[in-house]
Amino acid sequence: MNRKRLHAVVAKEWLDMRKNKMVLIMMALLPLLMVGMILGTVYFMARLPEADFDPQTGSSGMALPPELAALGPKDGVIVLINDQYMFYLLLIPLALPVYMAAYSIIGEKETRSLEPLLATPVSTTELLLGKTIAASAPAVVLTWLSFLLTAAGLYFIASPVVLAYWVRPVWSLSIAFHTPFLAVLSTACGVIASSRLNDPRAAQQVTALFVVPLITLSMVVLMGKVYLDMRLMGWATLVIAAVTVGVLWLAVRLFQRETILTRWR
Q1: What's this model's pTM, rounded to 2 decimal places?
Q2: Interval 208-259: pLDDT, tens
Q3: What is the CA radius of gyration of the chain?
Q4: Which residue from 33, 160, 212, 240 puts its CA 20 to 30 A from 206's CA?
Q5: 147 or 131, higher pLDDT
Q6: How many CB atoms neighbour CB 6 within 10 A?
Q7: CA angle 168-29-154, nearest 5°?
């Protein structure tokens, strides 16, 4: 693998990205909405009187898992809702990269710039790795920044207990390790879809395969049916890593540059 060619692909992708205002708007808007939603919810709930929280079921009939019962109904409910919101933060590395990857490949189809690129000495591995890095890295950084910015906001508006549960190892390590895997997984899905489709919106819809299970799990957590611990997150990491490697391998296999050069003419 030639590092200069790889760096050239990444630099080209980021240059094209800066020219696309819709991509830049999406990159800024989604993290801001997530952080604002989390902090806004916690701010208003933290200022409700303790009497508004039922001591048996918490607020709005939500049953607290035994692991949170000792926190008290108010902090317990806020922590439970924050655990659900943490899943929403993980939507950032799923949503942004596939959006960028789809426009990266399909946009080059439309502008006829992909064919000259495929005719260069850049290998398929260098091309796909460069596109993956270019699409994944911003989403990973934005997710980490969103997590840290939310923690900073909770420091000022929430109780120390709520902040401690936000940054507890099960979530700190999850954000640190799951985010890159999910970003690469999303990019690989975008590459697969973009290689076969000509509509970027159709290519982006492929992430629904992973968004729906993520939202479903967040609802199960909100209902108090599952409490996330390190053992469960460890298994989740193994599953996500295995799926990511499999989808990435499939993306490389399906991206046949010789066929593309003849098919897209």
Answers
A1: 0.81
A2: 666 666 667 666 666 666 677 788 888 888 888 898 888 888 877 776 655 5
A3: 21
A4: 33
A5: 147
A6: 18
A7: 30
How confident is residue 195, by pLDDT bands cut at 50, 70 and 90? low
Determine the structural domain holding residue 78 and report its residue range. Answer: 3-263
Distance CA 65, CA 150 (A): 24
Q: Which of 130, 135, 136 minimizes the C-alpha distance to 181?
A: 136
Phi, psi of 220 (to 5 degrees): -65, -40
Buried b (16+ CB within 10 A) or exposed e, 52-88: ebeeeebbeebebbeebeebbbbbbbbbbbbbbbbbb
pLDDT of residue 57: 46
The residues, ordered by sequence, that sit 6+ positions from 67 with a Cβ below 8 Å of its Cβ are: 227, 229
How many structural domains compose the chain?
1
Determine the Cα–Cα distance for residues 184 and 46; give it in Å rounded to an integer: 36
3-state DSSP assignment of residue 72: coil
- 198 backbone dihedrals φ, ψ, rounded to 5°: -115, 0
